Sequence to fold (669 residues):
Amino acid sequence: MSATPHPREFAAAADAAPPLIALRGVTRTYGEGEGATTVLRDVDLDIGAGEFVAIVGQSGSGKSTLMNIIGCLDRPTLGVFTVAGRETGAMPPDELAALRARHFGFVFQRYHLISGMSAARNVEMPAIYAGLPTDERRARAGKLLARLGLEARASHRPAELSGGQQQRVSIARALMNEPELILADEPTGALDSESGDAVLALLRALHREGRTIVLVTHDPQIAASADRVVTIRDGRIVSDERRGGAGDAGANVPPVPASPGPSGANASGSGLGEAAAMAVAALVQNRLRSLLTMLGIIIGVASVIAMLAIGAGAREQVLDDIRKMGTDLIEVKRGARNVRGGGDDVRTLVAGDLDALSRLDAVSGVVPETDQSVVLRYGGIDHQITALGTSSQFPHVRDWPAVRGVFFSPDHERRYANVIVIGARTAETLFSDGADPLGAFVLVNNAPFQVIGVMEEKGIVTGGGRHDRDDQIWVPYTTAGARLFGQDHFKELFVKVAPGHSLAAAEQEIFDTVLARHGREDFHLRNMSAAIAQAEAAQGTFTVLLGTIAAISLLVGGIGVMNIMLVSVTERIGEIGIRMAVGARRADITTQFLVEAVMVCMAGGLIGAALGIGVSIGLPMLDDGWRAILEPEPVMIALACALATGLVFGLAPARKAARLDPVAALARN
Ligand code: ADP
Ligand code: MG
Fold:
């Protein structure tokens, strides 16, 4: 039935010298159940070291399937397959990969070169996965290319080479790791007869040097160049003929050492450096896509850094503003604490309270403050502006003097004088024509008032949602109450604690005094240290909010990276198949894609950091209203997050790539 020896006969021969390749009862079935098709049936075949075997058969007879099993790219469904006496059935995928790297060199009909790489890089590939040092690898690839007459083409991409040249590059690649066995699947099938003859001559020359060759072809004429022709039909071996006096050369060749191959046979595969170099090449090749992939990370990292810097700046500004108001101030506000509407209807905070508090030892000054919007008319133009009704002690208590003219006096208060002091910005706006504000008359809610002073400029107060304090007018509280606001109670009082008195004790005394006068707690106190603590707490909440936004944008960026990496894996399945055929282990493929994802994220992170730092520095330079405080921690954290994003979101695509089936992946080329 079959020309191959019976298993029992073989067992006797094997004691002497195990053949390089041995198949026993190998069956390969695709699919399961109803749709299952058996492509190889009960194949027994030995190939000894040094043989030149042609496997010939019609298209679809199962030649490639057989070759894939011999090359450890595929596994038999049934039967036993050994390489140099080692049974492969129970080997994990990585061990099969190592076997491929060491023992087999593949030559495919369609060359299967990686299109993005030069001829030299393609030839080097198997040595990368065998762990050969870079210099040795380069030198060896150069020699092989030179030997095949391609030294002038080393830096060319596959697309720049003819079919015959590409096939010679792929033969050079097959020779890279000094394999025992060269498996050539229809190596001349895509070539013109001249190039095809050259390839066959090359294979014969390699055989004369002592290499084992398995040549798969549908063409009996091509098969005739081999010493032994195995004919396969419908998945069965139908004849096995030796010719040219080769006899059963295989049986006489000494056994192959278990672990030959290049120096790096036991090396741990391609290093991180190699993976990084390959990742850079892949990223550069898809420049625009890499940039778009990074965009989410760039925006995420830039916004974290800029928002935190600006947030910290805003916080400092608020605290500065509060400190500017004075930490020795106690605010007495109408209404109980935390009452809706701020106790607008409470009318009990009056001039009597002002006098009572002024008499306390611990108090160096008290001012009432009530603000309302008024219409100020000057030069025929109306301005909506805030009027602050307060007392002559305002410059002392609030540490805010008039820089031109004077602030109003106790005398003005007593006389209900129609005088105002105006803010620095108000002065600029109203008297932009250069007229002197001092002594000028303006209409406030249609009543004539004389300007007697201009306040010192305090700058924009951003915190607390307050109005521009340089753009308001100061009116004696008596005049304001009677003529402008129509009320004799105040919104709040500011009490300045005298030097040498404790804030807490003063606060208690103030509380007792007001409570005694009002008979109930229709007011509340606030001191500025408490306000600072409150502002800091609010900023803490703000920081958490920013952090959350940043985390979300990084998450979105990470999903973008994963998405693109999955696309990249799908696109490069063919390339992954080639890498696996030349010996890449799962870990090598995982590392490569993971490194690629991490590099995209880190590049995005660095660009984002530069952008964030740029915004943090640039914005305050463009506009005085912004302040930013750059600290190293947010930058570090953002970059660490970018790195973590790359690892986390790169892992799934990388594993997907590593788990591909080599044969199926190769078929995508
Ligand atoms: P050859 O190389 O001799 O032309 P192949 O070994 O490629 O033949 O294929 C042999 C048979 O197996 C063909 O009929 C083919 O359709 C079938 N075949 C190959 N690969 C698969 C697969 N992955 N799933 C199902 N059938 C397959
Ligand atoms: Mg085929």
Observations:
- The pocket of magnesium ion (ligand 2) is lined by residues 63-64, 185 (CB under 6 Å).
